[in-house]
Amino acid sequence: MEELLRRSEKLTTVGQLAAGVAHEIRNPLTTLKGFLQLQQRSLQVNLRHTDIMMSELERINLIVSEFLILAKPQAVHFQTKDIRYILGDVISLLDSQAHLLGIEFNPSFSQETLLIFCEENQLKQVFINLFKNAMEAMPEGGVVHLHTWRGDKRSVVIQIRDEGCGIPKDILAKIGEPFFTSKETGTGLGLMVSQRIIESHKGTLDIESELNQGTTITLMLPMVAVRK
Ligand code: ADP
Ligand code: MG
């Protein structure tokens, strides 16, 4: 965790990040340009090449949209919300996709109201990122366990546990670094963006992982007292 924080602090300047994004986007752009030139010269369309071009375009699209979540000066609108409803919304959003992949969500929510002060869309983005990682870690299917409860010191705890591949120790150290990914089509931005959003909510994000056993992500957010 300290490692994660230290790394993200090293990269706080937007300039450094922007340079990284530019670099990551230039690679697929170069590929796209190359294939387009080939097709121009031969005056015919090679379907294998257009497939590669499509996936490179998709990659640029993903990188840009994940990055925009951070960079966009979008209307940030903090409101008091019950975390259980936010989680419920995200689960319904992903449920049918998960079902197709043989993945089940197993939510267990506290009975009591758990209010937090948040930018709802940003928090939803965090949960989407974390659930997607959990799903991607279980290509054979499995269960994503989701708990939320009232923690110590006026906090709300949200725990997401998968039964997936887990994270090797050497890789764990690199997690949260922008563009670090072990996936063929990953962007390596999901966790970094999530970490930033949680920090902007004055919360913490903790990762524990056991190889071939699964990964547990624990989020803590300040709780808003219920007015009686
Ligand atoms: P991406 O998903 O695009 O690769 P992320 O920032 O979301 O980028 O994750 C970075 C890396 O962290 C992943 O490529 C993967 O190696 C590892 N990782 C994250 N979450 C999990 C998880 N639940 N189980 C196993 N590995 C994970
Ligand atoms: Mg991800």
Automatic annotation (TrEMBL):
Single GO MF annotation: protein histidine kinase activity
Subcellular location: Cell membrane
Keywords, comma-separated and alphabetical: ATP-binding, Cell membrane, Coiled coil, Kinase, Membrane, Nucleotide-binding, Phosphoprotein, Transferase, Transmembrane, Transmembrane helix, Two-component regulatory system
Histidine kinase domain: residues covered: 20-225
Signal peptide: none
Protein name per UniProt: histidine kinase
Species this chain originates from: Paenibacillus shirakamiensis
